[in-house]
Amino acid sequence: MEILRRFEAKTVVSLRVDPGECIQDTLEKVVAEDGGNALVLTAIGSVSKLVVAVPRLSPGKENVEVITKELEGTFELTSLIGGVGPAYAHKQANSHLHIAVFDHDGSVVGGGLRPGTTPWLPIQIQMLLHE
Prior knowledge:
By secondary structure, the protein is mostly beta strands. It has one helix and six strands. It is globular.
């Protein structure tokens, strides 16, 4: 086992992301205003547009390519996890978040959260802010 990092927690923030707002952009804005980082603790709600990055192994299994999936409909949010802020910066984003949702048939889809994912109904998110 290796402890990767220890940090001092500041506070827990509870927020609502409304329909039409980009989930990732909203979380990054809230954390940037605080000047620190945050871990997403829990989230509940529904999504009308889902944009995720999904890794796919090439047929020869030599390379991994990342494809972007975009879906529209009504999806229930089952999981939103990861970190937001400079400590978690990933590629061009100031966060590294994963999301999973299910549709009316119970089919589950998920991946790395990308800008453009928006709520169908308000989503409630709790984050632990830290340095």
